[in-house]
Amino acid sequence: MSFILLGILNSQAAAGGNIPASLNPDLWLDASDASTITESGGSVSQWDNKGTLENFTQATSADQPTTGVTTQNGLNVIDFAGDYLSGSTASEWKFLHDGTTYFFAGVMKVGNTATPGTNAIFGNDNESTVQRGAQFQFRDTDSYEYEITRGVSQVRAVDLSDNGLMPANTALIASALLNPDAAVAADRIDAFVNNTQSTVENTLTDAPSTSNPSFNLEIGASGLQRFQLNGFIAELIIVSGANATEENRQATVNYLNSKWGIF
Amino acid sequence: MNYKWESDEAFKAWHSIVKEALGIPYANKNSATGEIDENATWTTAYTALRTDDNGVKFAKVEEEIATQFSEGLGEPYEPYYDMEII
C-alpha cells in the first residue's frame, strides 16, 4: 500500500502538481507568500521556512533584506543589498555536507551590475576549507560555484566552479543535485542554470565530514556573514533523502519557472 | 558602506545614540496581515561589528544613517577577505 502511495506522490511530483509540498522539503522560502515574512517598513526580520526545518531571521536593522519593492513575473521577491538572514541551529543543516543526497533549486538574481564580485546565496562554511559545511555562491562576472568543505585545510569533498554558467544581474533558476559521498567524483554534483547543465565536473573524492557545520546556515551569505548578497531571492527550495532525485529536481525547476517566468 | 572605529567603546557609544533615535528594539509585523507579531524576531540592533580577514572590526552603515548620525561615526573602511582556492 505504501509503495502505491509513494508511486502516486512521485507521479504527482514528476507532473509538477503539488510541487514542492509533496516533496517534504527541508527548506522552502517563498517571497510571494506574504504570510511567511515579518517586516517593518519593508525591512525583513524573519522569513519563515515553509519546509520542515528552522526559520531565518535578522535582528540587526542594517543587515535586513527588504520586501515589497521588486517583483518578478508580478510576484514579490526579497531584495538583498549586502544583507543576510541566519538560521540558529547549525546541526539542522549538517545534511548539506555529510554525504546525504539532496537537491536545491532557487529563483534569484545576483548582482546589480555586470561585475558584482563574490556573492553567496546560501552557506555555512565561511568559504574556508578549514571550516565544515556547504555553500553556493556567484563569483566575478558569471561563475557558478558550489563547494562542500570538510574541516581539513585545502581538502574539499565537492568543488564545482563553472565560469560562464551563471550570468550576473539576470533573473535565473540555479539548481544542483548532490550526492557528496559518491565514489565517482563526477557523480557528486550535477549543476544547472535554468535548463543548462554545467559541463564542468567535480574532481574531488575525499570523504565528507559527518560532524556538524562550522556556522549557522545563512541566506544571502556563506556563514559568519561572509560574501553578503547583492541581488534578490524569490524562492529557494532544498529537498533531501528519498525525494532528492533528478526527476524531482527537474519538476521543481519546472514549478519555479512556471511561477516566476524565468526562461 | 562599511566603517571602522577607533575602539569598540567608540562604536558602542555611536550605536547607542542611533538605536535610541530609531526606537530600537521594536517588534515587527506580519507582511500579510499588517499586525505586529511579538513572537517573531524583533529588531534589536542597528548594526553590528564583524571582523575581516585582516582582523579589522567594521560595521555596515547605510548612507542615510551615516549622514544623519555623522558625529561619532568611524571612518569608511573596505573589508578584506582572502579567497581560498584549491
How do the helices and strands line up, and which of them pair or pack?
The complex is a heterodimer of chains A (263) and B (86).
Chain A: H1 2-15, E1 27-30, E2 37-40, E3 43-47, E4 56-57, E5 66-72, E6 75-83, E7 85-86, E8 102-110, E9 119-123, E10 132-139, E11 143-150, E12 156-163, E13 172-178, E14 189-193, E15 196-197, E16 218-219, E17 229-240, H2 246-260
Antiparallel strand pairs in A: 1-17, 2-3, 3-4, 5-6, 6-17, 7-16, 8-13, 8-17, 9-10, 9-16, 10-11, 11-12, 13-14, 14-15
Chain B: E1 2-4, H1 8-22, E2 28-30, E3 36-37, E4 50-51, E5 57-60, H2 63-68, E6 75-76
Antiparallel strand pairs in B: 1-5, 1-6, 2-3, 4-5
Write a concise synopsis of the structure shown.
The complex is a heterodimer of chains A (263) and B (86). Chain A has 263 residues and is mainly beta. Helices cover 11% and strands 38% of the residues of chain A.
Structural notes for this entry:
With 263 residues, chain A is mainly beta. Chain A has helices at 2-15, 246-260; strands at 27-30, 37-40, 43-47, 56-57, 66-72, 75-83, 85-86, 102-110, 119-123, 132-139, 143-150, 156-163, 172-178, 189-193, 196-197, 218-219, 229-240. In chain A, strand 2 (37-40) and strand 3 (43-47) form a beta hairpin. Mean pLDDT of chain A is 93; it is low at 1-16. By secondary structure, chain B is of the alpha+beta class. Chain B contains two helices and six strands, in the order βαββββαβ. Chain B has a four-stranded antiparallel beta sheet with strand order 4-5-1-6, with no helix packed on it. In chain B, a hairpin with a 5-residue loop joins strand 4 and strand 5 (57-60). In chain B, 17% of the residues are buried. The interface between A and B is medium-sized, with 33 and 29 residues.
